[in-house]
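Subject: sequence -> structure tokens, single chain

Hey, anyone have a minute? Need the predicted structure for the following. Not urgent.
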Amino acid sequence: MLVIVRHGNTFNAGEPPRRIGARTDLPLTAAGIAQAQELGKLFRAQGLIFARALVSPLLRTRQTVDAILAMQPSPPQIEPADFLREIDHGPDENRTEDEVIARIGKATLDAWDTTGVPPAEWTVDADARIAAWHALLTTLQPASAPTLLVTSNGAARFALKAMPNANPPSLKLRTGSYGVIRRAADGTLAAPLWDHRP
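Reply:
Had a minute. Here:
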């Protein structure tokens, strides 16, 4: 089982959210740390003992994984994973959503969230990301111990793009939410949870 977590909040209440990607390394806010702690409590209550923990290189994801693993009885070593790195939003980096929509249009942004097709000037490398997720998914066994992956919204969506027949209404994960991918005994993959918050 893969448990895919998006990092917690990086903007305080009342602060306009911005598109932050690979070039903007923000820490979690107090609310973001609380979100990560709630995820850790939930996973502990569910009896999830992680055998592996993969994380992107950004501070916000490292702080999230630290808070989650602090709730584990015997946490695994954290493994950096380059395929989990955030995307680069190009000219939209560090811009508010209103500014991004004014530049590229709402339909383009909606296509990113529903189909994973990025705006033209963003640096995403979707094919490489899908291939990396696919490689990980091929190692997933029905009875394997859970693996925790902590990343960003831009990277997490490609897990679903790597799955055959996955057709969620949105590929997006909100901050402090998670998704689950499992392989059934018959070999099929399913994502029974996506964008779920405690």
